[in-house]
Amino acid sequence: MTPDRKKKLRLLLRKKAAEELKKEQERKAAERRRIIEERCGKPKNVDDASEANVKSILIQYHKRIIALEGEKYDLEYEVAKKDFEIADLNSQVNDLRGKFMKPTLKKVSKYENKFAKLQKKAAEFNFRNQLKQVKKKEFTLEEEDKEPKKSEKAEWQTKK
Fold first, then answer.
1. Model confidence over 107-155: pLDDT tens digits?
2. What SS3 class is residue 147?
3. Please, what's the largest Cα pairwise distance for the chain?
4. Which residues make Cβ contacts (< 8 Å) with residue 57, sequence separation at least 6?
5. 3-class SS at 133?
6. Burial label, 57 (beta-carbon count in 10 A; 0-12, 13-18, 19+)
7. What are residue 103's phi and psi, to 5 degrees?
8. In Å, how far are 8, 33, 44, 54, 99 from 49, measured between CA atoms?
9. Out of 15, 89, 104, 157, which could bridge 153 as a Cys pair, Cβ 3.0 to 4.6 Å?
10. pTM (predicted TM-score)
11. How many CA atoms are closer than 13 Å to the CA of 29, on its beta-carbon side?
């Protein structure tokens, strides 16, 4: 097969697939319109109707809405019940297998941790070097408090 012929065949196949896709979409849209019309019914003309007819139409619509809401509630309840049962069965299966879901962990860069540790060490190192030494005697302890001289006697010894 020549490359030109292959190219033409590919184009024909693409066109055919596009046409099939379009037909399928149109068929689905028609089916959707038909089902909606079947479920909702034909719209009733309330413009020309008398007041009594409008009231009866509204009562019919109201009853239909109540019935549909009841069905919707029942379906939602069934779905929630099934979801709960599925979750329960999944937990039982995991217990039997011994496999549990592992939570997804955040990705943490190793380099950031190392950099933070280095900065912390550098900060401690710099802090100690930057302290000034006190040389004034104002802030030093006096030596009297340390040891009494031997010539002096304690107060309890002198009073007799």
1. 777 777 777 787 777 766 666 666 666 666 665 566 555 555 556 677 7
2. coil
3. 133
4. 44, 46, 49
5. coil
6. middle
7. -70, 150
8. 62, 27, 9, 6, 67
9. 157
10. 0.40
11. 6
